[in-house]
Input
Amino acid sequence: MKKVGLREVNRYLSKKTEKELKEEIKELYRLFPKVKEYYQSKISPENELDILVKYRMIIYKEFWHEPPKLRYSVMKKAISDFKKVSTQSENVADLMLSYVENGVEFTIN
Output
């Protein structure tokens, strides 16, 4: 299978009309939840707090599920995914701090 790089994507997109590009973006929005989150935070930054809560819950559940799962890879992916859709760096920092806070609270208990 041949890998498609950014150059091929650029060629593909340059052949599209503005209307076709809009349809392509709408299709991506419908198909991929991450694209939907990206546009929700880009278009309405106040929606980013709702998205932040979703990712906080992913981290929270890793610590406080019965029994605790404590999968570092899941928590790291949650932070990484949120960084991709976030428009405000303070929200990314907030999510990272919630990871630390949950870890400290879990250790104390």
